[in-house]
C-alpha cells in the first residue's frame, strides 16, 4: 500500500463526510401536505438513482482503508450565583466561529485539523477530523490525539461560564426554564408542552423534519420510559413529546471505507452484531426530564422521537383507508420505528441457502415487494434487494422545492439518500456518491451508528 498525498486525503475526507452525513441543502423545504403528492415519485426515482449508482460503481475494488469518527457535543451555561445550569442555544454562532478558526489554524501536525458541522439541537455541534485515519498502526495513535484537539479548540471558543461536556443527554431537558435564552414551550414545529422550538437548529430542514414526522404520524411523538423503581417511587413512567429529547442525544459514530462492495456488505453484517454491545458498554443516559429512569442507553428515546408511523402502521387502527400516495398506502403494518436496529443482514453469506437466511434473518423485515422484484430483475442478489426494498417501505420526510422532478437520475442520488439517510439504523450501508468533475474518489462505506 502506498501513502496518499495529504491534499488528496483531505479532499477525500471532506467528500466522505458529505457522503456519510449529507450536506444540509440550501432551499425551501416542503411541508408534509406539500410533500405527499411527490412521495411516490421520490420513492420510484430513488430506486432508479440507486440502480444507476450501483451499476456505475459495483466493480470498484482495491480501495484504501480510510475511517473517521463523528463526535457530538452539547453546550451548557452555568450560573454560579444561582447554582443553575441551562442548555446554551448558541450552537450556530459557535459553529461559525469554529470553522473560521479552522481556516486560519495550523493543521500541519501529525493529528491533523478539525471540521465542524451542524446538528439537530441548537445547543449542539459536531466535530470530525479533517483527514481520515488510514490502515496504518500509527493511525490508531492519531484518533485520541485528534479527539483531544477537537475538545481543546471547542473549549477556547466558549464564552465565560459556558461548558461543553461530552455527555449523551442533558438531564434537565424539559424541566422548567432549562434553556438560555429562555423561551416558552412549543412552537409550530413540535407543538411540545415542555420544549421550545428554539431548541431546534434554525436551519429550515430540522424544523421541517420535526413537523413532518409529527404530521405524518397524526400526533405529537409519544416517548415513554419506565421510571426507576425505588422504595418511595410512585411514578410509573416519564412522558416526553418532542423530537429534541431523542435527536438531542449525543454520541460517537464511525465510518469505514471498504476495499469494494462485498467487503462493505461483510463489514455491515459483522459490525451489526457488535453495535448493541458497544451501545451497552457506553451506556450513559440514566436521566431524562430530571427523573432517574429504568434504562441507561439513549436508543429507545431516539427511536420513539422520530417514529413517523401512522396509527394503522403501528397496528392501532384497523379501519384506516389507504392513501395510494404514501408508502404502503400508509396502512402497511410496520414492526418498528425508522430509527432502530438493522432488520436484515446484507452479505450473500447470510443468505446462502433458505435455511441459513431463515436462521440469521429472524426478525420482521417488511419490504416493498414491487421494488424488491424490480431490483432482482435488474440483477441484484436477493440479500441486497431485500435491504433496499426494506428502506423504501418508508416515505421521504423532507423534500425541497425545485429539487424533485428536476433531479437527473443518472447523476443525482438525492431521492435515494432522502430514504437511505432517514432510515436511522444501528448500521448504514453507503454507496459511493456520484463523482464530480475533478473531485476525489469515494468508495463503498459502512457506518456504525449505535
Quick description:
This protein is an alpha+beta fold. Helix content is 34%, strand content 14%. The protein contains 12 helices and 17 strands.
Characterize the structure shown.
The structure is a single chain. By secondary structure, the chain is α+β, with helices and mostly antiparallel strands. It has 12 helices and 17 strands.
Main attributes of the structure:
450 residues, alpha+beta, four-stranded mixed sheet, 12 helices, 14% strand
Strand proportion: 5-15%
Structural class determined from secondary elements: alpha+beta
List the total number of helices.
12
Average pLDDT reading: 92
Number of strands: 17
Shape: globular
Radius of gyration: 22 Å
Q: Regions with pLDDT < 50 over 5+ consecutive residues?
A: 1-23
* First-last Cα distance: 31 Å
Strand-and-helix sequence, N→C?
HHEEEHEEEHEEHEEHEHEEHEHHHHEEE
Major sheet size, sense and barrel closure: 7 strands, antiparallel
- How much helicity do the residues have? 25-40%
